[in-house]
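Box 3.1. Reading complex inputs
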Amino acid sequence: MKRIIITGALGQIGTELTQKLREVYGDENVLPTDIREPDMEIFKGKPFEVLDVMNIDRMKELVESFKPDTIMHMAALLSAVAESKPLIAWNLNMGGLVNALEVAREYDLQFFTPSSIGAFGPTTPKDDTPQVTIQRPTTMYGVNKVSGELLCDYYYHKFGVDTRGVRFPGLISHVKEPGGGTTDYAVDIYFQAIREGQYTSYIDKGTYMDMMYMDDAVQAIIDLMEADGDQLETRNAFNITGMSFEPEQIAAEVKKHIPDFEMNYDVDPVRQGIANSWPNHIDDSEARRQWKFNPKYDLEKMTEVMLEAIRNK
Ligand code: AKB
C-alpha cells in the first residue's frame, strides 16, 4: 500500500490523479497539495494542504506530518505559458523539482515527475521518435524537461532515489481544463463543439502531435510506480503515447457526432512554432516492453467519451 503526497494537485493531471489514487489507495493515504485552496467539489471534506513548491521547509513539514512513502511532483508551468515568462518558468519548474527531489532523498521517498514530448526539438527525428535520441529543444519548457530528466537520473544514480518518469504527450480530459499548453486545442475543441458548434484552432492543418486520454495517463503513472524496479532498465523519460493526429482528424471525428460542427483556423505563431519543433509520433515500445504500458483509448473512443461527458456537465 502506498502513501502519496502530490504537488500541483489542482492542475489538469493532478486533479484526476488525486481521484484515481484515492480510489486505489484510500482517501487517508493520498495528500493532494497546491499553491491555493481548492474550489472543486471533489477536494472538499478530504485531506488537502496548501504548498508552494518553492518553499522546501513547508514541503518537509508536510512530509514529516503525513509520512508518505511516495511523492508525485506535478507542479509546473506548461509550454506556451513558459515561453511567455521564461525566467519564472526556469525558477518554478527547476526550483520546484529540485526541492521535491531533495525531500525525496532526505525522507527516502519513491519519486514521480512527468517529462513531455516537449523535451524533443526540431533536430529530433520526427517519426517513430526513439526514446534515446537527439534532444535539443528550442523552448524554455523543453529545456526544463530535458534538465529534469537528467536531474532525476542523477538522483537515482548518485543517491539511490527511486525516481521514475514518463514523457507525456498532449493530455485530453474533461474534468479540469488544461492551462497554457500547446496541445490544449485538442481539449478546447470538444468543449467548443458542445457549447458553440464550432472551433477556431490555433494549430494549423497538417500538424501532427502525440496525444493521450487522461485515464490512460493516470493509469500509466500507477503502473510505472508499481512496476518491479528490477524489471526497469531505465527509470525516467519513458516515451508514451495513445494516438497521434492532425487537427483535421479530430475535427472529422467530432463531426461524426455533431454533423454541423465547423472547424476554422487562426494560427498562433508561438504555439504553432512550438508544435512544429515537436515530433509527429513517438515510439513507446520501451514502456510497453519494460512495464507493460498499454493505453486503451484511440481517437474514436476518446471522442465518444469526451463529448458525452461534456454534454452531461
Ligand atoms: C503542453 O502542450 O505544454 C503539454 C505537453 C505536451 O507537455 N500538454
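In summary: The chain has a mean pLDDT of 97.
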